[in-house]
Amino acid sequence: MKLRTALVASLLLLTSLPGLAKLPEQEDIVSIMQQVADWQIAHFHDDMERENEWENRFNAWTYGALYIGMEKWAQMAPSDKYYQFLLEAAANNKWDLGPGKYHADDQTVGQLYLELYRKFQQPHMLAKVLERTEWIMNNPSQQPMRLNHYQYTERWTWCDALFMAPPVWAKLASITGNDRFRNEMFAEYVATVNHLYDKEEKLFYRDEHFIDKRDKGHKIFWARGNGWVFGGLTLILQELPEGPQKAYFSKLYRDMAANLITLQTEKGHWAMSLKAAELYPTPETSGTAFFTYGLAWGINNGYLDKATYLPAIERGWQSLTSHVTDEGLLGYVQPVGAGPGEAWPDKTEVYGVGAFLAAGSEVYKLAAN
Fold first, then answer.
1. Which positions carry the signal peptide feature in this UniProt record (predicted)?
2. Active centre residues (catalytic)
3. pLDDT < 70 regions, the chain
4. pTM attached to this predicted model
5. Which domains does the chain have, with CATH numbers?
6. Which residues 6+ apart lie within 8 Å of 265 measured at CB?
7. Which residues contact 208 (CB under 8 A, 6 or more apart)?
């Protein structure tokens, strides 16, 4: 697969010089988003070759993350074919969540169903998400707040879970008017923060097994894991009324944002291990996309100062688009994992595309100004 050689060379030069990267015109943002979205739809079944059966579903978390970004693209796309794609995907899933009753990953796809319900107002789009979430609320898990080598996964014992499930609960509170969804979510979210958040570093450990672990002396803060949290915060915040809960999430969001811009590499991406960029020099696009999305959302919604945060967004977007091939494949997406690892220019994943489209949707709004 060919990369846009001349363009990439120019972009890499720009992203290596702080202050020189600039957002492209809106039509250019739309063009590359459409290219990536179309490539992914054409290759929609490619990820179904996974060995793990629990990942080999179109309502798994991997696809759920894709749908979240694809729905944001559908809102701005020049054609309604993307909503048709999402409606067909949801119908093929029978509007159902994954099989794990409590598992956060198996709730992720509910975010798509709820957004489609908001747009089309069809009761069947809401029914199964509501049924599952009410069941969990009325039958709270008795497991401890620890992962223990995946022995306990009914509660949000790994940081990725904070993207997967809490936005479903926040959206349901907004849609139904039942504050109990929001209150239950808040209590469980705070429990996870108390378990995994490093108050000094303003970052999340992926799970308990990383808290005391070091990589050549460095604390291990996985980029995509923190990207899950940071992106998830935006999905929650937009659902909250003013009050103590919103103040709590706002502070967490702003604290993470202020630290994240200090960790961006000179080339514009965020390293797979946020505090150990020298150990992981390979670009990685899924974490970078979530951070770019979250920062751009913050400016667009009045949470972040434009003068402070726009340069990081510009460099992040330039880095991301430099890893899109001529065919529309978003490269350098780290495969499914639970910590820093490897990525390759010709390898992608559906959740990385979802993060890229989410980032583009907010960068597009910024470019208007």
1. 1-21
2. 160
3. 1-20, 47-56
4. 0.94
5. 5-367 (1.50.10.10)
6. 271, 277
7. 146, 147, 148, 157, 195, 196
